Amino acid sequence: MEGSTMTNIAQVTREDLNPCTVKLSIACTSDQVEAGFDRALKQFGKRVRVPGFRPGHAPKAMIERFVPESDLKNAAAEEIVRNVLQKALTDEKLVPHESPGVELKALERAEGKCEFDAIVPLAPIVELGEYKGLTATMPFVDVTDEELDERIEALRKRKSKREAITGRGAQEGDIAVINIRSKDEEGDGKTFMVVVGKTFKDLDAALTGMSAEEMKHIDLKFPKEFQEESLAGKKADCTITVRSLNSVIIPELDDAFAQDMKADNLDDFKAKLKARLMEAKKDNAQENLNEQLQDQIVASSTIHVPDTMWQNVAMQRLNDLAREVHEAGMKMEDYAQERGMEIAELVKSYEAEAKTQVLRAVAITEIFKREAMKLTNQDMSDELMGMAREFNIHPEELLKELRRTNNLRELEYRAIFKKVVGYLNNEAKIEYAQA
């Protein structure tokens, strides 16, 4: 649907982007623009002190002298948009599911001009398909000796310690802090931390046998992918200095190591670790089963959601990813390239995943309503305890944070999800895969 109407003389053009998203393009009248500035000045008048006048009693012309132009314009825009948009929503018989997104296109007081676009999200439309008696496969779960050994080695490496090397030169696997300065370079050169044997052929050969504080002159041919861009792909006459040299000491796999890992002895440690790995695999298998059921429901249903629902989820997750990548000292471009993607592809993948998750969530919520399910205080308490364990925070602190950030709905949805997924599992025909 697309067309234009007049809202209190304002020009409103409506475009239905999809069944749950409407775009309103609005051009305000000069009277509406001036009224917006008047209301903004009135609000400023209540808190701006004008010499010779009590708060709220100074003339508008006087108040305007004490208000920065940008602040007045922003406040006026809010006033205009709020009033005109509400009238437009009423006239178009639109009930937003969430707050509309507004983009101000133009605001000129002298010309009496204000134009803006509003993206109005409407409530999801859901026609559920079959969700009882679905068929799904529970993957076979086991922990092999190889998997247990790999996990033990990872834990040993995590417990490893560095020890300064004396009495010998560098060997493969040693950690060295080195300085490289090319012949034509001014300054103190570049300092790196490297693992001997894991750099590149020329540098590994040069470092092998060197001791701490030793210096060596050598021609180095740097690979194109070398971490320092000024040297990457070049050949240079360099001076290498080993600033420090450390070996990595990995603890022996014995009872002492097991006791350090809070176990009685080595056998007890292996048994407990295998049990933890088995539990994690069972959780993954159950999650896989739950996704099978949800995907079948979404595929057999007709679900329309406003674009903003999945766009907001994708944006939040991308922002979280960007922060994590930055904290790791990387760029988003590098992170994407490591996964064989360009930035645009990475964004699209996150958007696709967000849309899938939103469609699943809407289906779950609809089943909760359809089956007239109710959440008890115990359901909410259990979910709060689970979230607290997940985030390693005290339940009372988590509850305070959820209230502070207005995210209690997240706790409620988790409880709804748990109850509905349990119901779906009980109703499903589950086949258990064999080894």
Please describe the structure with a list of short key phrases separated by commas or semicolons.
about 425 residues; alpha+beta; Alpha-Beta Plaits; Chitinase A, domain 3; Trigger factor, domain 2; five-stranded antiparallel β-sheet; 13 helices; about 50% helix; extended
Question: Can you put this structure into words, describing what you see?
Answer:
- The chain is of the alpha+beta class.
- The chain has 3 domains: 2-122, 2-Layer Sandwich (Alpha-Beta Plaits); 161-249, Roll (Chitinase A, domain 3), CATH 3.10.50.40; 270-432, Orthogonal Bundle (Trigger factor, domain 2).
- The chain has 13 helices and 14 strands.
- Strands 1-2-3-5-4 form a 5-stranded antiparallel sheet.
- Strand 9 and strand 10 form a beta hairpin.
- Helix 10 (343-370) packs across helix 13 and helix 11 (377-391) packs across helix 13.
Strand content: 15-25%
Q: Which regions are unreliable across 5 or more consecutive residues at pLDDT < 50?
A: none
Q: What is the level-2 CATH architecture name of the largest domain?
A: Orthogonal Bundle
Total E-strand runs = 14
CATH fold annotation of the largest domain: Trigger factor, domain 2
CATH C-level class of the largest domain is: Mainly Alpha
How many discrete domains?
Answer: 3
Q: What is the CA-based Rg, rounded? A: 32 Å
Total count of helical runs of at least 4 residues: 13
How can the largest sheet be summarized? 5 strands, antiparallel
Summarize the helix and strand pattern as letters: EEEHHHEEEEHEEEHEEHHEHHHHHHE
Shape: extended
